[in-house]
Write a structure and sequence with these properties.
- It is a single chain.
- By secondary structure, the protein is mainly alpha-helical.
- Helix content is 68%, strand content 4%.
- A 3-stranded mixed beta sheet has the order 1-3-2.
């Protein structure tokens, strides 16, 4: 790590936009140890086998036809930052377009903030399915990332076998690939409501309905992934969940602050609420009924239905 280089990158932020994204990425990488991807013998084959097996098991359990992304990468933390800074830039673009030219001080503050957030995520993300939302070239393939240094570090902290923990992460990310694969409309649905919400924010307003719809959809995405993963994973996992929860509870105040700022607590709520919804669906309609959410956008549960799975089942004729 080189904190001086990080500060220098932020101080040198330039341009006419809210954030100098090149400087933000440089600051994030300068303050983050990249970690190693010097793979041990057979390790690359292990990642490939985990993804392949996860695809097979998820297909079988969910009776789903999908494939994994064409891009599957084992990354360092710096690779992850480079891969995701473009996503942040795309999300911020409407705000920058409405705001016009930013003064130097504001740009420096914004660039520093984004650098800190990218660095925090780069040190904590384990795996990622990237649907490339808001991409300028929609034909680009989706991507699957594994941040090897973080996976190894957390496996050691939790005192679990690295290959088993790595495999668990692979199964989770492949379930997300399954969702976007069987519901080709899902990316457009998310992008539409993201644009509505961000455009309204950029104009100084707040589109409550757009963000409620985004929250409901992401709750379904996270909850269905949890359901599928628990049925598809071919090993014990209760201890992994328990240890990860204990790790979250033991975070420092600064780490908890970052989680709030980044909305990670909201994501956790989406996991829990989504899983409760699908548990209710399976109890009353079986695992096959859960897959009805992906038939069309109209089949997605409303906010009220997320707390009333039987009402959703009645609406979709189950």
């Amino acid at each position: 790590m080189n904190l001086y280089r990080s500060v220098r990158a932020v101080a040198g932020a330039s341009g006419d936009h809210a954030v100098d994204w090149v400087a933000a990425a440089e600051a994030a990488k300068a303050s983050t140890d990249p970690g190693s991807i010097d793979l041990e013998p057979g390790e690359r084959q292990g990642y490939a086998r985990d993804v392949r097996d996860a695809r097979r098991e998820v297909r079988a359990v969910g009776d789903l036809e999908f494939d994994v992304p064409g891009v599957v990468e084992v990354q360092t933390r710096h690779h992850w930052i480079d891969a995701n800074v473009e996503t942040f830039r795309r999300v911020m673009a409407p705000v920058e377009e409405h705001a016009g030219v930013f003064p130097g001080v504001a740009r420096t503050v914004n660039t520093g903030t984004m650098g800190v957030l990218l660095a925090f995520l780069g040190r904590n993300v384990l795996g990622q399915y990237d649907p490339l939302l808001l991409a300028e070239t929609p034909e680009d393939d989706h991507a699957l990332y594994f941040v090897r240094p973080n996976i190894r570090k957390v496996a050691a902290m939790l005192e679990v076998e690295y290959p088993r923990f790595r495999r668990w992460i692979a199964f989770h990310e492949v379930t997300h690939a399954a969702e976007f694969g069987v519901a080709p409309w899902l990316s457009d649905h998310l992008e539409e409501h993201m644009r509505e919400g961000i455009d309204t924010l950029a104009e100084g307003g707040f589109d409550k309905n757009a963000f409620r719809e985004l929250d409901a959809t992401m709750t379904v995405v996270e909850g269905y992934a949890e359901l599928l993963m628990d049925h598809a994973f071919d090993d014990e996992y209760a201890d992994l969940r328990r240890k990860l929860e204990a790790r979250r509870q033991g975070q420092t105040p600064l780490q908890k602050l970052f989680r709030r700022v980044l909305g990670l607590n909201l994501k956790r709520r989406q996991y829990e609420r989504g899983r409760e919804f699908f548990d209710g669906v399976v109890d009353h309609g079986g695992l096959e009924a859960a897959g009805l959410v992906w038939e069309s956008p109209e089949n997605l549960p409303t906010q009220d239905e997320l707390d009333a799975p039987r009402a959703w089942l009645c609406r979709v004729d189950r």
